[in-house]
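Quick one, tokens below. Sequence please?
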């Protein structure tokens, strides 16, 4: 079995203190601070594009479909980067991977702010794709190592810790759109990227100083072995539906809100709070609850998937319902999607880890890195599909129909996962019944 140079992890970890009432070690405290800074700084830089970039890109000659491709290329590079980096996290070193990822992502954010100076048309589009793709590799490095380190240092309460960290992810998503929209309205295209790129760069020396180093031994496990399990494949599909929904909203919501309700970029950023605010509030609650009661993870994911489908169905709303369009309805549905996203995403990571260990994977940083890489890759696949296909469907049909189709994907995933858990429960019940009958039978039949 893999032997990692494990930190002293007293008892069970339950957020700020261990389950047994013990205080966190210094390494645990520093890791939480580091992961929180990474989640916040990375997500605020990622989320600033939503309110104004599609509008700016159209001025530069990019169609709705091309805007979707620019958003989607980020996800393709993130997918490839997550797979490769998740496999080699031990060889590179988790701390080194995180630092290099932050540095690369900050540089690309600053460069992206200079693209308004290049000629419109193919040159602008090509440079957007290149810079976003490189930025995605940096993001993949930072987030893959962040997930793996969090699960390594807090092995007993992964969902609680990840849920707590998602508050900072949500905070970055909350502040990114309004801050980006306000900077754009006040100072133009370049300033949002310059300010937030420099902010991300400032996180590099902070994490060099506070992030502890964790040594580990590499493993021979592979992604293909992980994906042989039906349950993990279903969970991957659910991850895909969630991230594709977010990617769809990134590429289409701002244009829809501007056209339908005549809103400015700043107000579009405020509307996006309806998605990120419930997510950041719900994540720690669902994380704590699912760690305390692990059996609830499955049904949280199923119910969350159904709620996500309902939110997308009424987001437009879909034309065949004949429901009038209202701004308050749009914001309410974004809130439902945000809350259901927390309900579904937070239990998935510990569920996949538990499933991997049940299937004989070695406990340690190598397996955690591989699970993190797979999670990031599937998430990125959805983030590519969402804006790309969402842009195409929106352009050919409408935003309302595109949102409804996205909701259908989420509903299908929830149904498949629900059927799987029902069948597994029935099998376990039948097995217990057969075992009870065998134990009640006499050992000897008839006289000796």
């Amino acid at each position: 079995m893999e032997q990692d140079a494990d930190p002293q992890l007293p008892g069970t970890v339950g957020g700020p203190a261990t389950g047994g009432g013990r205080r966190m070690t210094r390494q645990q405290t520093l890791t939480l601070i580091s992961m929180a800074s990474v989640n916040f700084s990375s997500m605020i830089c990622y989320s600033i594009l939503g309110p104004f970039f599609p509008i700016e890109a159209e001025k530069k000659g990019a169609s709705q479909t091309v805007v979707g491709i620019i958003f989607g290329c980020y996800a393709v590079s993130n997918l490839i980067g997550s797979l490769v980096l998740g496999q080699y996290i031990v060889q590179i070193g988790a701390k080194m991977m995180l630092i290099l990822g932050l540095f690369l992502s900050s540089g690309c954010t600053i460069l992206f702010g200079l693209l308004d100076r290049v000629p419109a048309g193919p040159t602008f589009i090509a440079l957007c794709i290149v810079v976003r793709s490189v930025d995605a590799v940096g993001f993949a490095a930072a987030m893959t190592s962040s997930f793996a380190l969090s699960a390594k240092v807090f092995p007993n309460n992964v969902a609680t810790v990840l849920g707590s960290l998602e508050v900072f992810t949500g905070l970055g998503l909350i502040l990114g759109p309004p801050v980006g929209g306000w900077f754009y309205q006040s100072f133009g295209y370049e300033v949002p990227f310059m300010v937030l790129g420099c902010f991300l760069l400032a996180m590099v020396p902070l994490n060099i100083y506070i992030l502890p180093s964790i040594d580990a031994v590499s493993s021979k496990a592979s992604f293909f072995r992980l994906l042989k399990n039906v349950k993990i494949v279903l969970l991957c599909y659910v991850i895909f539906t969630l991230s594709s929904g977010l990617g769809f909203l990134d590429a289409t919501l701002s244009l829809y809100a501007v056209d339908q309700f005549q809103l400015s970029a700043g107000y579009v950023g405020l509307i996006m709070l309806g998605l990120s605010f419930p997510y950041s509030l719900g994540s720690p609650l669902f994380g704590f609850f699912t760690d305390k009661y692990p059996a609830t993870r499955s049904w949280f994911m199923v119910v969350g998937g159904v709620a996500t489908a309902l939110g997308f169905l009424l987001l437009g709303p879909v034309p065949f319902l004949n429901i009038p369009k209202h701004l308050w309805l749009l914001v309410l549905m974004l809130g439902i999607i945000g809350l259901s996203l927390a309900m579904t995403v937070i239990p998935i990571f510990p569920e996949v880890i538990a499933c991997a260990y049940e299937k004989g994977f070695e406990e340690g940083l190598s397996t955690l890195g591989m699970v993190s890489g797979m999670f990031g890759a599937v998430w990125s696949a959805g983030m590519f599909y969402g804006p790309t296909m969402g842009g195409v469907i929106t352009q050919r049909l409408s935003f309302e129909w595109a949102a409804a189709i996205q909701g259908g994907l989420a509903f299908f995933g929830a149904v498949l996962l629900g059927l799987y858990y029902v069948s597994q429960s029935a099998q376990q019940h039948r097995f217990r019944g057969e075992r009870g009958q065998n134990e009640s039978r006499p050992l000897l039949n008839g006289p000796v």
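The chain is about 75% helix and 0% strand. The beta strands are 13-14, 17-18.
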